[in-house]
Amino acid sequence: MAKEERTASEKADFKRELTEVVPHLRAFARGLCGRADMADDLVQETLLKAWAAQERFQPGTSMRAWTFVILRNAYLTDMRRNRFRGEYDETVAERVLTAPAGQEEPIHLSDMHRALLTLPPERREALLLVGAGGFSYEEAATICGCAVGTIKSRVGRARAALNAMLADGNIPKRSIDDNAAHRAILEELDDVAAGQGASRS
Amino acid sequence: MSSKTPKTPQRVPAGGPLPTPAKSGKDTHPDWATGLRKLYDSVVEEPLPDTFQDLLDKLDAKD
Fold this sequence. Notes:
The structure holds two protein chains of two kinds.
Chain A: H1 8-33, H2 36-52, H3 63-80, H4 90-98, H5 109-118, H6 121-132, H7 137-144, H8 148-168, H9 179-195
Chain B: H1 31-44, H2 50-62
């Protein structure tokens, strides 16, 4: 079936929805790669790809979920090219920390962010999608191209790991800069990227 | 008792306080879970650099 050119109003809708989702793309990207400037690069890349693929977007479905798939894949590709070293943005973490908390014992968010970045990428993204992005397990599974049970288990493991790290104050300093750790991450990324055709088009 | 009032007006959370998930009381909410949401929401609420809108406008004009 030949693809019909989208009507002007469909294109306008697409652009509007894509625009609306940009703040969420930035938040997801920041959580994934930890650094504001790199995250924004990733968002730009995502917008370009989303624009080029707009005929494949089903109007009425979730623009956020659709673009997250694109962003995620761009991230995995870039990560394997070694663009991101899992650095994190201390200033953001600190700023968030100063936000009114209402908590007796506010967690040190830069610790949290660093702990988050030490998680294997597939657990980190699962936790980000469900715990921060507010996606259901089902939606997260669709975004990551895996089974719902897999997402549940990843989120569970990520939570357990963070609980343990933050409870003990046992947060690896910069293990991501460590060569062995970095290689391990890349190997896991290979699995993530190979196993799951999330963006089957 | 005294919650700190942020001095910068833009720090006010757009959507008000985060909704507490009412479901399964099974896993209690550790502090970091709230922190994770805050980290995300704080980025969502950041003023958007013009670059994104510019990019979309450029793409739009090209079509």
